[in-house]
Amino acid sequence: MMDITSSQLREHDTWRAPVYNITSDHACRLLSQTKLDPDRDFEHNFVRKALWCADGSSALLQCENRSFQLIHASPDELGLTLSHALTLRQPSPIVDFLWYPSASRHNPATYCFVASVRECPVKLLDGNDGRLRASYPIVDHRERQIAPHSLLFNLTADRLYCGFQDAIEIFDVHRPGEGERLHTRPSKKSKEGLKGIVSALSLSPTGTYFAAGTLTPASPAADNIALYDVSDNMQVLSVGGIRTRESGGVVQLMFSPTDEHSLYAAFRRSPCVWTWDLRNASTPVCRFGPVPIGGTPESNDWNYDTDVLRYDQTNQKIHFDIECGGRWMGRGNQVGNIEIYDLHANHQLAETTMGEMSGFRTENSSVNVIQPIQEFKAHADAIGSVTFYPVQPALLSVSGSRHFDAKAIPYVSSTRSEGNVHSDSDSDSDLALDSDEGAQCWQQPCGVIERRRQPKNRPHPTWLSSTLAN
Fold first, then answer.
1. Rounded-to-integer distance, Cα 147 and Cα 25, Å
2. With CB atoms 3.0 to 4.6 Å apart as the test, which of 39, 74, 265, 397 could cross-link to 386 if both were Cys?
3. CB crowding 199-229: b at 16 or more within 10 Å, else e
4. How far apart are CA 197 and CA 443, in angstroms?
């Protein structure tokens, strides 16, 4: 038997964050791909959101056909192998889901996730077979089950925060049943606090406070992002300066993994991600956005009032992700491109801004714009979610959306190698439906999971004339 020294054991047990080498001319390499589990009752299925578990052994996919699909990831000599493992069908549409913080396929006790399904209690599901471990009901004044729009675990994973209309329900994970309700505003007529559906929650790296955002747009009377203390669940700070810059509600909040003062937010129908330095949260420090159409703000596609692009945006949620080292942020857009941003530029701007005029800024202060360091075509449809792989420098993304026009734009498979894009058709208008949907993982960094949905042929109403007989 071969002896293992303590130094070798420590080296084996030590986790190191993946190192990314991203430049503007860097080419991405396809690592692996896998197909989704076909559904005969829902032929044109697609994936809305994907999340890796803590150790990257599995990825959980939220699908349009009211199901979760579990994919196993296995590192090998070629990079990474993805394989479909399990499909968990749900009785109603899925609102949100979240892995248990220490979930690992190699540890059955922690291999689970929470799911929010419409008109059902919040469910803690086993990752191996999908069995129900526990349920956490949220009941309104009419005794109806409420499905929260956002989920969050605390740092010790013994508290579960669930955001819904004008409130956040806090559960003890180890004691299923009713939770403690935290109202985000004193009363329905009150102008204080957060108003509307709590659509986004994020915990600071230190675990001492969390951020909450609502789908209600910010107004002169109230902001739509606030910070709460974990110890007493009291609101401690209101994050402002977004009222004149975004007209939609918050769809995602995320703290930097390495900086508790940096908060990032994405808004509905917006191509930008905004960031605040919480030491002065009166206005954003900067925004991360794509290159303007036409190349300069002088083009007709630029909105001078908000300094953002002016073109039709999808109502679908577009999620971004920050790699665990806190350096790179990835985000998709509605035309199928993936954008990679360097967050170190944001830290430099934050330090500069805090040093000017004692760090005081107003809502009308100018905001710096940071453009992507890399952008590439990865899909033919809107990219709903991207997530960095926690073990290797790779990125997984999902794509797909609903189409209700007369002639649907179906799925097209695309690959990227050495900076070139190859597709199955010459133009987006001539795309042919591909019966194989699946998942792809790319190295440094992009990935593909894609499916577009065709509209169903719905019967038209028939008008019948009738007469009364004498």
1. 44
2. 397
3. bbbbbbeeeebbbbbbbbbbeeebbbbbbbe
4. 37
Contact 18, 395 (CB under 8 A): no
- Consecutive H or E run containing 158: none
State pLDDT tens for residues 312-355. Answer: 578 889 999 999 999 999 999 888 888 999 998 866 655 555 44
Strands 328-332 and 320-322: antiparallel
Q: What is the pLDDT of residues 343-401, one digit of tens each?
A: 988 666 555 554 443 444 555 567 889 999 988 888 888 888 999 999 888 899 888 88
Residues in contact with 229: Cβ distance below 8 Å, sequence separation at least 6, in sequence order = 208, 209, 236
Give, in order, the Cα–Cα distances in Å from 240 to each of 57, 223, 272: 39, 6, 16
Mean pLDDT of 35-63: 90
Q: How far apart are CA 444 and CA 362, in angstroms?
A: 38
The stretch 111-125 carries a mean pLDDT of 97
**Residue from 203, 397, 370 nearest 272 by CA:** 370
Phi, psi at 9, each rounded to 5°: -65, -45
- Which residues does 314 contact at the CB level (< 8 Å), separation at least 6? 269, 334, 382, 401
Rounded CA-CA distance 19/36 in Å is 30
The residues, any chain, with a CB within 8 Å of residue 407's CB and separated by 6 or more, are: none
Give yes or no for a contact between 80 and 34, defined as CB atoms under 8 angstroms apart: no
pLDDT attached to residue 413 = 33
Asked whether 360 and 351 are in contact (CB, 8 A), the reply is no
Neighbours of 10 (CB within 10 A): 9
Q: Which amino acid, 331?
A: R
Check: CB of residue 415 under 8 Å from CB of residue 8: no
Beta bridge partners of 62: 49, 68
For the purposes of burial, counting CB atoms within 10 Å of the CB of 106, is it exposed (0-12), middle (13-18) or buried (19 or more)?
Answer: exposed
Residues 307 and 180: their CA atoms lie apart, in Å, by 41
Torsion of CA 65, 66, 67, 73, to 10 degrees: 70
| Backbone angles phi and psi of 346, in degrees to 5 | -65, -40
DSSP symbol at 22: -
Task: Determine whether 57 is exposed, middle or buried from the number of CB atoms within 10 Å of its CB (0-12, 13-18, 19+).
Answer: buried
Q: Three-state SS for 420?
A: strand
Phi-psi region of 294 (alpha: psi -120 to 50; beta: other; left: phi over 0): left
- Please give the DSSP secondary-structure letter assigned to residue 241: S
Q: To which H or E segment does residue 257 belong?
A: none
The two three-digit tokens of residue 107, written as one number? 């540890």
- Sign, CA dihedral 228-234-237-240, equals positive
